[in-house]
Design a protein that fits this description.
The protein has about 150 residues and is of the alpha+beta class. The protein has 6 helices and 5 strands. The longest helix has 18 residues.
């Protein structure tokens, strides 16, 4: 019985490790039931409704096509607001290198669409501002935007 428990434990550990093998540290990714374009359109519209400034929308797949390369749908939205970014930079001014915020919508090899964004708490930790309250606030806003984007 002890051997069986050890085997089960190792199998569980392997499954957990394997499930997170594609995870990128500091990046939050959520599955979208929509197409890549529809996901980014919805995210952009929701961000605008929240009062966020849209600085740029970059279509990496279109860029790849210009140099005769193939790339699955991959778009980045650069957005932000001084109301959120300034308090982050007051915690650690070097956070400015990671601002404005970005959202990535991409399609994987199995045609699953994902919405990804940098975790503001991770950004704060990266800049030695572990207890920055603005990071938690912005994280909640981004999580709500992501949930609304991929939700019904």
């Amino acid at each position: 019985m002890k051997t069986l428990n050890i085997i089960f434990g190792l199998a569980l550990l392997f499954a957990i490790t394997n499930a997170n093998a594609n995870a990128v540290e500091g990046l939050i990714s959520v599955k979208s039931p929509l197409s890549a374009k529809a996901t980014m359109d919805k995210f952009e519209n929701l961000a605008k409704q929240k009062g966020l400034n849209i600085f740029a929308r970059i279509d990496h797949a279109a860029g790849a096509k210009k140099v005769d390369k193939q790339l699955r749908p991959t778009e980045v939205l650069i957005f932000g607001n001084p109301k959120g970014g300034t308090p982050l930079m007051q915690c650690a001014q070097t956070i400015g290198i990671d601002l404005p915020l970005k959202a990535l919508v991409w399609e994987d090899a199995q045609s699953q669409v994902w919405l990804s964004y940098n975790d503001p708490t991770y950004i704060a930790e990266r800049h030695n501002a572990v207890n920055c309250p603005a990071a938690k606030k912005i994280g909640k806003v981004l999580a709500a935007l992501a949930d609304k984007t991929v939700g019904p």
